[in-house]
Each structure stands twice: as structure tokens, then as C-alpha cells.
Automatic annotation (TrEMBL):
The keyword Membrane applies. Keywords: Glycoprotein, Membrane, Transmembrane, Transmembrane helix. This is Transmembrane protein 104. InterPro entries: AA_transpt_TM. It is found in: Membrane. Residues 81-110 are annotated as: Disordered. Signal peptide: none annotated.
């Protein structure tokens, strides 16, 4: 699963406010940069309705994951207590009562055992242990379900890496080949246009992709650790860039120089918008690392609601300012690039270069972390009980099967719109909808024989009826069918 250090969190307790900020930063990432173009293609009314509904669906499955985390903690406590009872019964059978009374209490006696013998109440559902989604899948699913979970995670991470591998060279190509003399205005370039000398823009993209692979690829063969301050720096850069883009677009619109005349609705753009929105609201796989360190978990539900309201407002503000500021047909896949060659919006060269290179800095720091995560998921998927991998397999084969496929995809296409849409629509749907729904469903079933119906999960989802679980599964299935049918129809037209 996603490692704890990828969020910049430590094992120390954090406040609710810090958790809110981390969750906001976690969700608002690369997907936000591809949102404006997808928003424009589907029409502002349809986009607003769909993004609001998908935010609600993501919020629902987030509450499912938090409930499943509490259920997993309860099951771990229950098993630990059973083991203690077995050990206690074994020890009393080996010694007489006098011998037992004469023996001193060991200092390493578990806290739960002391609480139980002391008559104290144990809150089974308190989230104190970080249980990742992979571990929850192992606890609640059968072997087939666990393998399907890891396959879905692997596919999603491959899509993530392909998006990152394409986004950085695209940004470098646009900065290197774009016209920064304030004479380009709103020109849209073609891949066959010349960049420098006889080198086309497409060739330049491949050159930058090769450099990107050579510089960041070796990190896959090692472990990415101690990235806390790097993540803080990239988060700071992210907010400077987002704030600049929103303010600059608002200023241009306020001066009545906006070029955007967005449509109200365009159904043909809905499938891609769906994939982008699913990708943009993705956080379920990192919730264990985010929620567990929070000290006061009584108001976690309030935190999640506030976060989704803020994120929905932010996406709406970013997208609406974009579609009214720029001509929808000229919006780039990577929204930051609209500010690099249009001096009517931003005429300070240093700031134009900053926005143009912003994805390079932020995405480059995340690529090794996601790659190491994918490599570790591969190892878990093929894990053999009690066995170890040969050195060549562990150090060479797994890193190569992690790095090579997304780089090949990035060499074949740099259409970020399609990469984000497909990744979100397929693997993202599984991770954001299907897996959380099944985790909470089977988590509830596992706890009934252990704790009965008297124990109430204090972190249970507001959507506690089974209807909501199956509603999510049916919705995800319908969306996959709709997106697949649309892709087939589009290919048929071509």
C-alpha cells in the first residue's frame, strides 16, 4: 500500500486541523491540473452536477474505509485477547495455585490483559494501529479477493506512473519549445511543429522522457525514505501555483478580457470527465496513514465532511475560472501550460517559467515514491509464505517490471487526458468504490460472531444500511460499462 512517509506524516500524534490540511493536499494533486479541460469538454452545468455527485460518492466510500479500519482494529484486539487467554490457561495448568500466587507478574504483560483483569472497559473500535488496505483485504477477503485487490492496486499505480512519466516531459517540452516572447497568444502547437533546428516537438518530448527515465529510474532499485521535508516543499509550491492561477484568471475575467464561452452541456465529454473526477478524488488508499496519527478521532467524520466541501469548492473555483478565462478549445491537458505562452494573462517571465516547470518539480518528487510502492505491491502479490526471493529477482526483476511498462506507455502516447481518464475510470473505480464497499461489508460480517450485536462501532459510516454498499457496487459497474461502451463507439467512429 501507499507508505506512510509518502504523506509526510510521522508516527507522532497530529491534531485534527493538521489532518484536514494533509487530506486536502493528498486529494488536490495532479488530477486538479487536468480537471479544467475535462470540465470544459463536458459543459459547465453537466460538469458541476457530476463532480458534486462524485464528491458525495467519494465521501461515502471514505467513511466506509474508516469504518473498516475500526473493524480491523477490533478484530486485531480480539485475536490478541484470545491468544492471551490461551497463554493464561496454559500457564495455570502447568503450576499449582500456590505456585501461581508465588510468581511475580511479568513486566511485559500486555495492556489489554491488565485492563481486562482490572475490570476496565476496552474500546474495541479505537483506531490506534495503522492497518493498510492490503492488510484489511487479507483479514476480510478470501485468497481470490486479496489477489484481485493487489491486481487493482498494481494497475492503478501503473497508470499513476504513466501519467507522471508523461506529464514531466510535456511540461519541459512546452517550456523549451513554446514561444515565450509574448507574441504567441493562444496558438496551439502540433507535435510535428519544429522545436529547435530539425527537432520536432514530438522528438523533444522523447528526449526529455529519456532524461527523466535516466535520472529518476534508478530510484526504483532502492527505497524512498526521509521525504518529509521534500513533501512539505512540494506542497508549498503547489499552493503557490494554484493560488497564482486562480488569481490571474480572476483578474483577466474581471478586466472583461476572458476568452471563454463554455457550453452548458456536452454529453460526449462526460466519460472522460468521470475518469478525471475519480482520479482527482482518490484518497481511500492512503486513509490509514492519514487517520491513524490523528489524536482526537471523535471528530474525524466532521474532518472528512469539511475536507470534501473545501475540495469541491476548490475544484469548482479552479475549473470555472479556467473555462471563462481561456478559450475551451485552447485549454492544455496540463492547465499550468496555459500561463506559459500567453503574456496577456501573465507577462512576468520568471513567473511564467515557474508555472510551466511547476509539474516538473512536484511530480518528480512523487515518482520514486509511487514506483517503490508499486514494486512492493508486486512483491506482496507474489509473496510465498516463509520464502524469500533470489537477489536477481528482488533487486533487478521487480524494479524493471515496475519501471519499464509505464515508460513504454509514455513513449507511445503523451495524451494526459486519456491516461488520467482511463486510469481513473478503471483502476480508480475499483480502489475508490468497489474495494471500500466490499471491505466494510465483509468487515461487518466478520465482527458479528466475535463481538455480537451489542458492540457499536463508533466510527461506523453514516451510510450504515447495506443498501448503500450495493448502491456503490452497482454504480461502479454501471460506470465501467458506460465508459467501455463509449471507448468502443469512439474507436468505431475513427
Amino acid at each position: 500500500d501507499i507508505p506512510e512517509h509518502s504523506l509526510g506524516l510521522t508516527s507522532c500524534s497530529v491534531s485534527l486541523q493538521v489532518g484536514l490540511v494533509y487530506m486536502f493536499n493528498l486529494i488536490v494533486g495532479t488530477g486538479a491540473l487536468t480537471m479544467p479541460k475535462a470540465f470544459a469538454q463536458a459543459g459547465w452545468a453537466v460538469s458541476l452536477a457530476l463532480i458534486s455527485f462524485l464528491a458525495f460518492m467519494s465521501y461515502m466510500t471514505t467513511t466506509f474505509v474508516i469504518e473498516a479500519m475500526a473493524a480491523a482494529n477490533a478484530q486485531l484486539r480480539w485475536k490478541r485477547r484470545e491468544q492471551e487467554e490461551v497463554q493464561d490457561s496454559d500457564s495455570t495448568s502447568d503450576y499449582s495455585d500456590d505456585d501461581v500466587r508465588g510468581r511475580s507478574e511479568p513486566e511485559t504483560r500486555p495492556i489489554l490483559s491488565v485492563q481486562r483483569t482490572g475490570g476496565g472497559h476496552v474500546d474495541h473500535f479505537d483506531i490506534v494501529e495503522r492497518v493498510e488496505m492490503g492488510q484489511m483485504a487479507s483479514m476480510f477477503f478470501n485468497k481470490v479477493g486479496v489477489n484481485m485487490f493487489y491486481i487493482c492496486m498494481v494497475v492503478y499505480l501503473y497508470g499513476d506512473l504513466a501519467i507522471y512519466a508523461a506529464a514531466v516531459p510535456i511540461s519541459l517540452m512546452e517550456v523549451a519549445c513554446g514561444n515565450h516572447s509574448c507574441s504567441a497568444g493562444g496558438v496551439k502547437y502540433d507535435d510535428t511543429d519544429l522545436c529547435w533546428g530539425p527537432v520536432t516537438r514530438k522528438d523533444a518530448y522523447k528526449v526529455f522522457l529519456s532524461i527523466f527515465t535516466v535520472m529518476l529510474g534508478p530510484f526504483v532499485f532502492f527505497d524512498a525514505q526521509k521525504t518529509k521535508y521534500l513533501q512539505i516543499l512540494t506542497s508549498l509550491m503547489r499552493w503557490i501555483a494554484f493560488t497564482m492561477m486562480i488569481i490571474l484568471a480572476l483578474i483577466r475575467i474581471g478586466k472583461d478580457r476572458g476568452e471563454g464561452r463554455p457550453r452548458m452541456a456536452q454529453i460526449s465529454g462526460v466519460p472522460n470527465l468521470f475518469g478525471v473526477c475519480v482520479y482527482s478524488f482518490m484518497c481511500q488508499h492512503s486513509l490509514p496513514s492519514l487517520v491513524t496519527p490523528i489524536s482526537d478521532k471523535r471528530r474525524v467524520g466532521t474532518l472528512v465532511v469539511c475536507d470534501y466541501v473545501l475540495i469541491l469548492g476548490f475544484y469548482g473555483l479552479l475549473s470555472f475560472t479556467a473555462i471563462f478565462c481561456f478559450d475551451s478549445s485552447l485549454l492544455h491537458d496540463m492547465y499550468t501550460l496555459n500561463f506559459t505562452d500567453n503574456c496577456d494573462v501573465l507577462d512576468i517571465p520568471a513567473l511564467r517559467y515557474f508555472l510551466g516547470l511547476f509539474p516538473v518539480f512536484t511530480i518528480s518528487t512523487n515518482f520514486p515514491i509511487i514506483a517503490v510502492t508499486l514494486r512492493n505491491n508486486w512483491k506482496t502479490l507474489f509473496h510465498r509464505d516463509g520464502g524469500t526471493y533470489p537477489w536477481v529477482v528482488d533487486r533487478i526483476v521487480f524494479p524493471l517490471i515496475t519501471l519499464v511498462p509505464p515508460i513504454i506507455v509514455a513513449f507511445c502516447t503523451h495524451n494526459l487526458e486519456s491516461l488520467v481518464g482511463i486510469t481513473g475510470a478503471y483502476a480508480g473505480t475499483g480502489i475508490q468504490y468497489v474495494i471500500p464497499a466490499l471491505l466494510v461489508y465483509y468487515g461487518r460480517r466478520h465482527l458479528v460472531p466475535m463481538l455480537g450485536t451489542d458492540e457499536v462501532n463508533k466510527h461506523r459510516s453514516p451510510f450504515r444500511h447495506t443498501f448503500w454498499v450495493w448502491f456503490v457496487v452497482v454504480w461502479a459497474t454501471f460506470c465501467l460499462m458506460f465508459v467501455t461502451a463509449n471507448i468502443i463507439l469512439e474507436d468505431t467512429k475513427k
